């Protein structure tokens, strides 16, 4: 049972600690890694939320789930959205989410254009004779991304091996980057999220088209096999 603890309003520091813990669990769940909500709750009570009870932390997580659903994000499994969340708390959580590294609105090249919630893109709809009105002021969606620290010397060496030519299609880089060098992207053949290594034996230099093909095409597995077959330095992991 919870022992009775503080019932005063939550400070920004306490609320942010809850948000950080929620984002940690959200990211672990998205990447298929195991975690225990009870263990995270205990860590908070032993640390920044030592004045809060287990049940109050649980309810705060439900508050955050509610905000996630408002933003069109999938919540952490097991944390049902709170039915009643004050506008002030909701706004504070939103502002904290907007400042988190990797949690961003979708300007520029940072993210793809995403459909609105419940909207599913299709390829076989008939041609529209009447031009749709569209959206004058598209609303922002928020996403969380998990990034990995990468060795700069590995990236440079892989680009040096490629010498300005895509290692996927064997064509010259499609354009020069802002540094004046042929623009190629370093791709990890076994993805870092799949426990792939950041070594030259697991990295290739690709044009943007081939890079996207590795991630999104219907033949991505077959295309990846061609990389192993043609590039001698690659080693399966």
TrEMBL record:
Record keywords, A-Z: Endonuclease, Hydrolase, Nuclease
Protein's name in the database: 5-methylcytosine-specific restriction enzyme A
GO molecular function, one term: nucleic acid binding
InterPro entries with a match to the protein in the record: HNH (IPR002711), HNH_nuc (IPR003615)
Residue span(s) of domain HNH nuclease: 153-212
Organism taxonomic ancestry: Bacteria, Pseudomonadati, Pseudomonadota, Gammaproteobacteria, Pseudomonadales
Natural source organism: Pseudomonas antarctica
């Amino acid at each position: 049972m919870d022992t009775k603890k503080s019932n005063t309003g939550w400070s920004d520091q306490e609320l942010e600690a809850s948000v950080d813990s929620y984002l940690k669990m959200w990211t672990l769940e998205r990447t298929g890694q195991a975690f225990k909500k009870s263990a995270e709750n205990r860590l908070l009570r032993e640390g920044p939320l030592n004045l809060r009870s287990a049940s109050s932390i649980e309810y705060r997580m439900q508050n955050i789930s509610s905000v996630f659903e408002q933003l069109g994000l999938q919540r952490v499994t097991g944390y049902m959205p709170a039915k009643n969340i004050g506008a002030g708390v909701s706004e504070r959580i939103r502002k904290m989410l907007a400042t988190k590294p990797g949690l961003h609105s979708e300007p520029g090249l940072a993210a793809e254009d995403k459909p609105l919630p419940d909207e599913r893109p299709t390829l076989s709809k008939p041609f529209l004779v009447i031009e749709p009105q569209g959206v004058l002021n598209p609303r922002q969606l928020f996403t969380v991304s998990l990034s990995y620290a990468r060795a700069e010397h590995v990236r440079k060496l892989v680009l040096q091996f490629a010498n300005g030519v895509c290692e996927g299609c064997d064509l010259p880089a499609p354009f020069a980057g802002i540094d004046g060098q042929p623009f190629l992207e370093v791709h990890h053949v076994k993805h870092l999220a799949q426990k792939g290594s950041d070594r030259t034996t697991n990295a290739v230099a690709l044009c943007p088209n081939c890079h996207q093909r590795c991630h999104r095409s219907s033949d991505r597995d077959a295309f990846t096999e061609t990389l192993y077959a043609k590039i001698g330095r690659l080693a399966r992991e």
